[in-house]
Amino acid sequence: MNHIVILVILIVLSGTLGGIVSFLSELNKKEAFLKNRNLYKSILVGISASMLVPLFLNTISSNLINESETDNNKLLVIIGFCLIASISSKRFIQSMSERVLNELKEVKEEVKDVKKDVDVLAEKETEDESKIIEIEEKVKSTDNRVYNPDDSNRVKVLKCLTDSRYSFRSLKGLSEQTELSESLITDLINELINDKYVDQSVREKGIRFFITKEGREFLHFYNTTSYAPILEKHR
Known about the structure:
This protein is mainly α. Helices cover about 70% and strands about 5% of the residues. It has 2 domains: about 5-95, no CATH class; about 125-230, Winged helix-like DNA-binding domain superfamily/Winged helix DNA-binding domain (Arc Repressor Mutant, subunit A, Orthogonal Bundle). The protein contains 12 helices and 2 strands. A two-stranded antiparallel ribbon has the order 1-2. Strand 1 and strand 2 (about 205-210) form a beta hairpin. Residues about 140-150 and about 230-235 have low confidence and may be disordered.
């Protein structure tokens, strides 16, 4: 008989037995047994929980299903898992649902981070002036204000993020290169993040910062207009 068919039969039988055990553990002695509808509900829920065991084994990276094809002793272990799952069916199903949803959320976040990293590397190698006019209008809207040292420092941070051989920078690294205090770098980074000129990514060694597409266009605009000399005076 096919191994998968054997597994399905064992899972269903284990789920049925576990459902009955779960029902009997809560049964009032005065109640009828076979005529009680809750028995069949318990069996159905038990089978459902038992069917989730292969998924559970997969989430813990267990190779038990494949190993059971050549080792019949592993089938007994699977039956044990199915009985435990079906006897505590409600808690097991709820626990598995939460576990799977959390893993899906983590995978989604990982995919988002990978996409962000790829975008950063692609933007570093690609020149795009499609939003220069939009940025120019934004800067002109602040034409009448007096520039202060923070403006120069903001540009200095953006240049460090652009010119470095590293795409992702730490606060300490930016502080050392710009010769500004880490507290000031933190404030500047927060401002640049609010302006969408800088973003952050969680790396193996902690949070790292990188310049965005908007940040590159903003820096390019300042480097090619009369605003750059104004900022340089405050260095």
